[in-house]
Amino acid sequence: MDFGDLKARFFEALDRESGSISGAARVVGVNRATAFGWARKAGVRGRGKTGTSGHPGRAEYDRLRASGVRRRDAAAQVGVHERTARDWDRGIRKIGNARLHPDGRRIDYTAGMTSTVAVTSGPSLAAVEAELHARFLTVTERELIADMRREGQSLRAIGRTLGRPASTIKREIDTRAVDGVYQPHRAQRAWAKSRSRPKESKLAQDGPLREFVAGKLRERWSPEQICHALPIEFPDDESMRVSPETIYQAIYVQARGGLRREVAVALRTGRTRRKPHRSPPDQRTRRFVDEMVMISQRPAEVEDRAVPGHWEGDLIVGPRSESAIVTLVERTTRYVMLGHLPGGHTAEEVRDVLVPLIQTLPEHLRGSLTWDQGCEMAAHKQFTVATGVPVYFCDPHSPWQRGSNENTNGLLRQYFPKGTDLAVHSTADLEHVAQQLNGRPRKTLDWRTPAERLRDLLTTT
User: Fold this and answer.
1) Using CA atoms, how far apart are residues 235 and 216, in angstroms rounded to an integer?
2) Integrase catalytic domain location, by residue (predicted)?
């Protein structure tokens, strides 16, 4: 008899023998070791045996979870961390400082890399035995369905016994039966295998989608901007769609790659590894003595961004504070203006750059300026006299009160990395960077650009 046919007969016998591997091995006449090897690779174990792992409390944990105990409580009773319990529930194995997922993903926390390892074609043992939401049929229920079908019971009778609609029973039998025969353990394995659907990344294949994404990354667009630009550029081509997360995975995750490393460095952070979001550290805590008008006294119309012409400002500073760039952001349109400070950033130097910048604007776009309490704005009264623009100061340690400007400074660091000399950039260089930023679509602007919004303001007034 062909080896494949013998193996198929073994699994058929396994269903008839109520999941007994030894019994099925005797029926088909194969060695028990061979039979257990087949079962292990297929993600099947002998009936009545509890799951085991290296931890002595694993069997007790499985028993508690099967009885309905919450994960946190079961973990506490057996003395393991809740994350370990979560890994057990999900079929994740811990190998050294790495975790191996049932779908073959191996996350190495030491190297900070994710790769794919070969997995067996069948579902894992944990996937076969996983008890998920109550809406899913369990292996016990599938065994009962098979028994009652052999007894000639109707679909409605089976449904009443299980407390499920007859349509659920019909779909299960129609989907999982093979040649008109419903075998519960085969059905359980087929269900477990169908739950996970790993797919090859869209960006792992050459084509117009990957070319478009790579091209926009080189132009320093963010993955989210690229995602929302695709339906606009290709409204009738459903194949030209990709989520921001897919782009990030194609860059950061080795197993789902598809974008070259030189494209990855075009990301604004310049990182080659992902890291959790953390609040940025407060950087400006120094005050000056001159009288200030605080942000609490700023008109309400500025806060809700309903009226254009109100600006947020700050400096990005080079090494040893020897050079700087003035950054101004309009709160309504997110329009960016940059000022050149190659020789320093004293209060007088900052004033002399800010005044001509603001004076290039029409009167209706000179509403106010919000700044932090850095000493570079010590000449704020002189600035107000020269331009007619009042200056409001943020509270100490409160960068979120100038959120648009803080965000813009982060974008600018892609062009002017920290630790680099800002004096080498000319006024023309700054104008070019400002044009690039003002030409990017923004989510907060309903994917229009700051330049378009500012143009609308100038042409409608």
Assistant:
1) 18
2) 295-458
CB 169 within 8 A of CB 24: no
Euclidean distance between the first and the last CA atom of the chain, given in angstroms as a whole number:
88
Q: Which helix (H) or strand (E) holds 93?
A: strand 93-95
Backbone angles phi, psi at 258, to 5 degrees: 160, -10
Same domain, 315 and 373: yes
pLDDT tens digits along 369-399: 999 988 888 889 889 999 999 999 998 888 8
Interstrand relation of 368-371 and 391-393 (parallel, antiparallel or unpaired): parallel
Look at the chain and report how many structural domains it folds into. 4
Give the C-alpha separation, 162 to 175, whole Å.
18
Whether the Cβ atoms of residue 113 and residue 254 lie closer than 8 Å to each other:
yes
pLDDT of residue 192: 77
**36 CB neighbour count, 10 Å cutoff:** 16
What pLDDT, in 10s, does the model give residues 292-324?
Answer: 888 888 888 888 888 889 999 999 998 888 889
Q: Answer whether residue 95 is part of any domain.
A: no
Q: Are 426 and 406 in contact (CB under 8 A)?
A: no
C-beta of residue 114 within 8 angstroms of C-beta of residue 128: no
Domain assignment present for residue 156? The answer is yes
Domain co-membership, 316 together with 413: yes
Q: Is the same domain home to 168 and 242?
A: no
305 within a domain of the structure (yes/no): yes
Measured distance CA(398)–CA(393) in Å, rounded: 10
135: its two tokens = 């809406």
The CATH number given to whatever domain includes residue 363 is 3.30.420.10
User: Is 256 found in the same domain as 206?
Assistant: yes
Q: What is the token pair recorded at 180? A: 């008109």
- The answer on 324 and 449 residing in a single domain is yes
- 329 by DSSP, 3-state: which? strand
Residues 302 and 320 in one domain: yes
Q: Which among 189, 185, 195 is positioned nearest to 142, based on CA atoms?
A: 185
Q: Map residue 109 onto helix, strand or coil.
A: coil
Note the pLDDT of residue 279. 47
Domain boundary among 195, 215, 234: 195
Distance CA 140, CA 294 (A): 68
**Domain identity same for 178 and 37:** no
